[in-house]
Design goal:
Blueprint lengths: L1 H21 L10 H8 L14 E3 L4 E2 L4 E6 L5 E6 L8 E6 L5 E6 L5 E4 L5 E8 L7 E9 L7 E7 L15 H4 L2 E7 L5 E6 L14 E5 L5 E4 L16 E6 L16 E5 L10 E9 L3 E6 L24 E6 L7 E5 L4 E5 L23 E2 L16 E7 L2 E6 L4 E7 L5
Antiparallel strand pairs: 1-25, 2-25, 3-4, 4-5, 5-6, 7-8, 8-9, 9-10, 11-12, 12-13, 13-14, 15-16, 16-17, 17-18, 19-20, 20-21, 21-22, 23-24, 24-25
């Protein structure tokens, strides 16, 4: 035993020196993702970090991306950005793929691309348009189902095409201008690779066989239409409205997990339609199972609980938003809800109960949610500072980092809660 102690006394200082030189630790590599974000990829400017709890810029931003419309960090941990290079030409829309060091690794043109998501098989879905004729005179809404983008060898598996993808349109013909006006506006996937596709359009009569244009279509992993949000209101403002859905979010999301991922069918929706006077433009929609009717989708009245002992502002305040473009739910324990509003040039953050703000630190004197919503286009409306946002569109969350498509500044900005940097 004495010899063992002598050997330990000899080798421990050497081991400590090796660990110091290599940056290793007995408890793991100290170069974790947070340290790399701060010290390798750039840094948080100490002059920009306020004393209170808030979201702060995380460098580097992804700059020089023309009119970014949507962003999604996939289960493969690559960053997918939809860009509109020429707003007058849908053939110039692209998917840009970046690695975690913000380096561009691949680009893929997709006609009319606007939204993107990925399922747990690493299959990617892109909402865009497709041409119905060789002369390219008519194009309709579509969702492109693609595999192997990360490998740089994209394989187009299928195209979900309006209007034939909707089983209620099996016996209806092409509606001309009305079908051309339909858009697929948001995408989200569930734990079992079910795909939600939000849709908007002019035909919303609920008396016929065909479903209204405004609503959400459900597809299984093979691309077959398995449902629709029949119970949502496609014509009027309410807590279960489907008028002009612009973004949709499920409760399941990256990173990949063997267990612990949400199996809920509930979803959140942003409603940006400017032709309707909508009182509620960010909604929590609950899914319930009926033995006779299957899955029913309806309002979440729990969000009407305005408990001022817990928060000062709430997601369900009347006319809280002007033009919410996108919505995303963090798939971690906090499950914060992130919403972009292009009219307010801002990002809003809520708890999973609809309270605006984040949980206060353990040592905080206040027990209320701390409001950390941020943005603003500056006094001249053209601000390009790290906290400024102009016409923000897509948003997502990955590894405690918020990615925001700052469309007016042609960049994708990154932010992190300053308490997560400690």
């Amino acid at each position: 035993m004495h010899q063992v102690k002598n050997k330990l006394a000899f080798f421990l200082p050497i081991l400590a020196l090796i660990m110091l030189l290599t940056g290793c630790s007995l408890f793991g590599d100290k170069k974790n993702s947070t340290v790399e974000d701060v010290f390798v990829q750039g840094s948080i400017d100490p002059n920009l970090v306020p004393n209170n709890v808030s979201y702060v810029p995380l460098y580097p931003f992804i700059n020089n991306v023309r009119n970014p419309l949507d962003v999604f960090v996939g289960y493969d941990e690559l960053i997918y950005i939809v860009v509109d290079n020429d707003e007058n030409n849908i053939d110039d829309n692209e998917i840009l793929v970046y690695d975690q060091k913000m380096q561009l690794v691949y680009r893929l043109p997709i006609t009319g691309a606007t939204d993107i998501t990925q399922d747990r098989r690493l299959h990617t879905y892109v909402a865009g348009r497709f041409y119905t004729d060789a002369s390219k005179t008519i194009n309709l809404a579509a969702v492109y189902h693609i595999a192997l983008i990360a490998a740089g060898t994209p394989q187009f598996i299928d195209t979900i095409q309006h209007y034939t993808c909707d089983e209620s349109r099996n016996n209806t013909s092409f509606r001309g201008a009305d079908d051309i006006a339909v858009n697929f506006t948001g995408l989200a996937t569930l734990w079992d690779n079910t795909l939600y596709v939000s849709r908007s359009g002019p035909r919303n009569d609920q008396t016929g066989i065909a479903r209204p244009d405004n609503g959400v279509l459900m597809f299984n992993a093979d691309g077959l239409n398995i449902g629709f949000t029949t119970n949502l209101n496609p014509n009027q403002s309410s807590l279960k409205s489907s008028v002009g859905i612009s973004g949709i979010a499920s409760l399941a999301g990256p990173p990949q997990r063997l267990s612990g991922i949400s199996t809920s069918k509930n979803f959140f929706a942003a409603l940006s339609d400017q032709n309707s006077n909508l009182e509620y433009r960010a909604l929590s929609i609950l899914a319930t199972e009926d033995p006779d009717q299957g899955t029913l989708y309806g309002e979440n009245t729990n969000f009407l609980n305005f408990d001022y002992t817990k928060a000062d502002r709430f997601m369900y305040e009347s006319f809280r938003f002007k033009k919410p473009e996108d919505i995303y739910v963090a798939p971690d324990a906090n499950a914060y809800i992130f919403i972009t509003d292009s009219e307010k040039d801002s990002v809003f953050i809520f708890t999973n109960a609809g309270f605006e703000g984040v949980n206060p630190p353990a040592n905080s004197k206040t027990k209320k949610q701390l409001i950390v919503s941020f943005g603003g286009s500056g006094t001249d409306g053209h601000g390009s500072g790290p906290f400024n946002l102009i016409d923000p569109t897509g948003i997502c969350y990955f590894n405690r980092t918020v990615f925001v498509c700052d469309k007016g500044n042609n960049r994708v900005s990154r932010f992190r809660l300053n308490t997560d940097l400690q």
